[in-house]
Design a protein that fits this description.
The structure holds two protein chains of two kinds. Chain A is an all-alpha fold. Chain A contains 24 helices and two strands. Chain B is mainly alpha-helical. Classes of the chains: A mainly alpha, B mainly alpha.
C-alpha cells in the first residue's frame, strides 16, 4: 500500500496545502498595503497551488498511495502524525478544489468590486481552500479533523459576510451549529477508529485488523459528521440558508469545499465503510430520502440560489448513494462533474443576480437577450445537472444508477428508484429555472443596482473555463483506463464493491434520460400555456407551499428543537438571575442587616459609651465581689 | 472621728459625679461632675491618710489637685472651641464620630 519513502515526495502535497494558507495569512496581514491589493496574494497563492495540484495529478499513477508522515511532538497515548497521503482520489480532488477555488477568487475580484470587506473575504476564501486541501491530503485523521473544523469556521465567516443583514448572521450561526451537531459524532468516530487501530494514521486504520463492532460504531459516528457537512437529511437545513453569503462563496461551498468534504471522507475511508454493511444501508436510505426531498423542494423555490442549493442537496445524495451501493468510482466521478457544473451554475447565477439586482425568479424573465453569455453557460450547466447527454452530469449520474442496479438488493433498488424519480424531478426543476430566468417577458421592478449586461472579463473567464469540464468531463467515463485509475488503489474486492466501472449502462441511461426529458417536457408544456405563470403553480396551494418550505422541516426543527432549547436557556438564565444571584446578593444583604445591629451601638454619643463602660465596670466589680 | 463618715460622703460625691458625667447635657456640667469624682477620690486619700497616720495619702491628694486643675484647663479650652465652632455645648449633639451610611452611596455596596 505505502509507496516509497523518499522525503521529497511529501514536498509537493505539503506545498499545495501551505500556499493557500500562506496567501490567507499574507492577505489578512498586509492585504491592503500590497501593490496588487488583497486580490494579489489570494490569486497568486491559489493559482500556484492549482499548478502544483495539476503536477501532482499527472504524477499520481493508478494504485499508488504515497504516504509521508512525521511526528511533531511525541504525545502520550496514541501517536499523532503529521503528513500527507496521496492517491488518485486525493490527487484529483485536490486538483478540482484548487481549480474551483482559483476561479472563484478570480470571479470574486469582479463580483465583490468595491466591497469594503473584500480584504478579509479573499483571505478567508484562501483559508477555506487550505482547510479543504488539508482534509483532502491529510495522512492522519486528527490532521484531517483540523482541516474539517477550520472549514466550519470559514463557512461561518463567509456565509455571514454581509454582516449588516440579520439574515446572513442567522444563516451563519445556523450553518455552524447544524454542522457542529454532526461534528460531535465525527469526532467520536475518529476516536473510536483511532483507539481500535492504535493509531490515527489513515493507512494504519485502513490496514490493521479492527474489531467489527469498532468499525460499525466508528463508521456510523463518522456518518453523522458526513451528513452534517454534506448537507444530507436530516442535517441538510443549513445549506439553503447559507445562500445569504455572497454568490461566489455559494459556488465554493457547493462545488469544491465544505459539502464535498463529507463525501470525500466516505471515499477516503471506503474500505471501512465496505466492511460495515449497516452503515452502507443507513447511507443508502438517507441518500434516497435526501435526493427526493432536495429535488422536490428545488421544484418550488422562487429564489434562484435556493433552487441551486436544494439541487446541491439532491445531487450530493446521488454521490452518497453511489458510495453506499459500493460504487466508489461512480460516486467520486459524480463529485467531480458536480463540482464543475454546480460551480458554473452558481457563478452564472451570480452574473444574473448582479445584472438584475434580485434573487427572485418572479422578478426575472427574458434575460437571454440581455445576458447572452450567461444564458449560454447556464444552459450548459443546467443540461449537465439534468443529466442530458452528452454533458458531464449524464455520465456520472448514470454511473451511479448503474452501480445501484448492479448492487441490487433493497439498498440498491432504493437508490436506483429514488435516483430515477429524482432524474425526472431534476429535469423539471432545471427546466423551470431555465425558463423562468431567461425566457418569457421580463417581470418585476427595474430597481436595484441593475447593470443588465454580461459581466466583466474577470467574471466571464471563470464561466467560460468551467463550461469546458461541465460539457466534456463526462467523456472520461468512456475511458476504461480512467476508471481503473480512479477506482484502483483501494481494495474494492469487499462484498459490496460492485459496479465500479464508469461506462454507462445503456438501459439505465436510456431510462434516466427519458425521465429527465419527460420532466423537461411537462414543464415546457405548462409554461407554454402561460409564460408569465410559474409552472409549479399548477399544483394545489397546499402541496406547493409544502414544497416551498421543504416539507416544513425548518418549522419542525424550530418547534421541536430550537424553541425548547431557547426556552431552556431562558429558564437557566432566570434561575441564575433570580435564584443563584439572589442567594449571593442575599448573603451580602444579610451580613449588612446583622452588622446594622452592631452599628447602632456606635452612635457617636460619648455619654452612652461611658454608660456602657460604667455598667461593665460595675458588673466586673460585682462579679469580683461575689466570686472572691 | 469614725472612718465611715468621710467614706460615705466620698461615695455620695462619686455617685453624683457618675450621674453628672453620664446624664448631663451641658459640657461644663460634665467637667464639674468629673471634678466631683476626682475630689471624692481625694477625700478618700485624706481620710485613709489620717486614719493610718501616713502622709503618703495627703501627698497623692496634692498631686490629684494639680492634675485636676490642669485637666479642667484643657477641658474648658476644648469646650470653648466647640462652642465657637458649633454654637452649642450640648454633649449629646456632638456625634461626628457616629457610624452612619455615607449619604450618597447608601446601600449600594455589598
Amino acid at each position: 500500500m505505502t509507496g516509497s519513502s523518499l522525503a521529497g515526495e511529501a514536498v509537493l502535497p505539503t506545498l499545495i496545502v501551505a500556499l493557500p494558507f500562506l496567501a490567507a495569512v499574507v492577505g489578512l496581514l498586509f492585504g491592503r498595503r500590497l501593490p496588487g491589493g488583497p486580490a494579489a496574494p489570494a490569486l497568486l497563492g491559489t493559482a500556484a497551488a492549482t499548478v502544483l495540484a495539476g503536477a501532482l495529478l499527472l504524477h499520481t499513477r493508478a494504485g499508488t498511495v504515497v504516504d509521508q508522515v512525521g511526528t511533531l511532538t511525541p504525545t502520550g497515548g496514541i501517536r499523532i502524525t503529521v503528513g500527507t497521503r496521496v492517491d488518485p482520489l486525493a490527487a484529483i480532488t485536490a486538483a478540482m478544489v484548487c481549480l474551483v477555488a482559483v476561479l472563484v477568487q478570480l470571479y470574486s475580484t469582479g463580483y465583490l468590486r468595491g466591497d469594503p470587506g473584500y480584504c478579509a473575504y479573499a483571505a478567508q476564501v484562501s483559508l477555506f481552500t487550505a482547510a479543504m486541501l488539508t482534509v483532502v491530503l491529510a495522512a492522519d485523521l486528527i490532521v484531517l479533523l483540523v482541516g474539517w473544523e477550520v472549514m466550519g469556521l470559514c463557512s461561518y465567516l463567509l456565509i455571514g459576510h454581509y454582516r449588516e443583514q440579520p439574515s446572513a448572521g442567522a444563516a451563519a450561526v445556523k450553518a455552524f451549529l447544524t454542522t457542529r451537531v454532526g461534528d460531535v459524532g465525527f469526532l467520536f468516530g475518529i476516536f473510536t477508529l483511532g483507539a481500535a487501530a492504535g493509531s490515527f494514521r489513515i493507512s494504519d486504520v485502513l490496514s490493521r485488523p479492527l474489531p467489527h463492532t469498532a468499525v460499525v460504531a466508528g463508521t456510523l459516528l463518522l456518518t453523522c459528521g458526513v451528513l452534517g457537512k454534506s448537507a444530507q437529511f436530516p442535517l441538510h437545513v443549513w445549506l439553503p440558508d447559507a445562500m445569504a453569503g455572497p454568490t461566489p462563496i455559494s459556488a465554493l461551498i457547493h462545488a469544491a469545499t465544505m459539502v464535498a468534504a463529507g463525501v470525500y471522507v466516505v471515499a477516503r475511508l471506503f474500505p471501512l465503510f465496505l466492511a460495515s454493511p449497516l452503515t452502507l444501508d443507513v447511507l443508502a436510505a438517507v441518500a434516497a430520502v435526501t435526493m427526493l426531498l432536495g429535488a422536490l423542494a428545488a421544484l418550488a423555490q422562487d429564489d434562484l440560489k435556493r433552487v441551486l442549493a436544494y439541487s446541491t442537496i439532491s445531487q450530493l445524495a446521488y454521490m452518497i448513494g453511489g458510495l453506499a451501493v459500493g460504487g466508489y468510482a461512480p460516486g467520486l466521478f459524480h463529485l467531480l462533474t458536480h463540482a464543475a457544473y454546480k460551480a458554473l451554475l452558481f457563478l452564472g447565477a451570480g452574473a444574473v443576480i448582479r445584472a438584475v439586482g434580485t434573487n427572485l425568479m418572479s422578478e426575472m424573465g427574458g434575460l437571454r437577450r440581455v445576458l447572452p453569455l450567461t444564458f449560454a453557460v447556464t444552459t450548459i450547466g443546467l443540461a449537465s445537472l439534468a443529466g442530458l447527454p452528452p454533458f458531464a452530469g449524464f455520465f456520472s449520474k448514470d454511473a451511479v444508477l448503474g452501480a445501484a442496479q448492479a448492487r441490487g438488493g433493497l439498498a440498491g433498488w432504493l437508490v436506483l428508484g429514488a435516483g430515477l424519480v429524482t432524474a425526472l424531478l431534476t429535469g423539471a426543476y432545471a427546466t423551470r429555472m431555465w425558463l423562468r430566468t431567461f425566457f418569457g417577458p421580463h417581470s418585476g421592478p427595474h430597481s436595484g443596482p441593475a447593470v443588465r449586461q454580461d459581466p466583466p472579463a474577470s467574471m466571464r473567464v471563470p464561466l467560460l473555463i468551467l463550461a469546458v469540464p461541465a460539457t466534456l468531463l463526462g467523456f472520461l467515463a468512456l475511458s476504461a483506463r480512467f476508471s481503473r485509475w480512479l477506482g484502483a488503489g483501494l481494495d474494492l474486492r469487499g462484498p459490496r464493491a460492485v459496479g465500479d466501472a464508469l461506462r454507462p449502462e445503456w438501459g439505465i441511461a436510456l431510462a434516466a434520460t427519458t425521465l429527465a426529458v419527460i420532466g423537461l417536457g411537462v414543464v415546457v408544456t405548462l409554461w407554454r400555456r402561460d409564460p408569465v405563470r410559474d409552472p409549479v403553480a399548477v399544483l394545489a396551494s397546499g402541496p406547493r407551499r409544502a414544497l416551498e418550505h421543504a416539507f416544513y422541516l425548518d418549522e419542525l426543527y424550530a418547534a421541536a428543537l430550537v424553541r425548547p432549547v431557547l426556552r431552556l436557556a431562558r429558564t437557566v438564565l432566570r434561575v441564575d438571575e433570580d435564584g443563584i444571584d439572589a442567594v449571593v446578593d442575599g448573603s451580602g444583604q444579610a451580613a449588612r442587616t446583622l452588622g446594622g445591629g452592631v452599628r447602632l451601638l456606635q452612635n457617636g454619643n460619648v455619654q452612652r459609651y461611658a454608660t456602657g463602660l460604667f455598667a461593665g465596670v460595675l458588673v466586673l466589680a460585682l462579679a469580683a465581689a461575689v466570686l472572691a | 472621728m469614725h472612718l465611715i463618715l468621710p467614706l460615705l460622703l466620698s461615695a455620695v460625691l462619686f455617685a453624683l459625679g457618675v450621674y453628672g458625667v453620664l446624664a448631663r447635657r451641658n459640657a461644663v456640667a460634665v467637667l464639674m461632675a468629673v471634678e466631683l469624682m476626682l475630689n471624692a477620690g481625694n477625700l478618700n486619700f485624706v481620710a485613709f491618710s489620717a486614719a493610718y497616720r501616713d502622709l503618703t495619702g495627703q501627698l497623692f491628694a496634692l498631686f490629684v489637685v494639680v492634675i485636676a486643675a490642669a485637666e479642667v484647663g484643657v477641658g474648658l479650652a476644648i469646650v470653648l472651641l466647640i462652642f465657637r465652632n458649633r454654637d452649642s455645648i450640648a454633649v449629646d449633639t456632638l456625634r461626628a464620630l457616629a457610624d452612619r451610611d455615607p449619604p450618597e452611596a447608601a446601600g449600594d455596596t455589598g
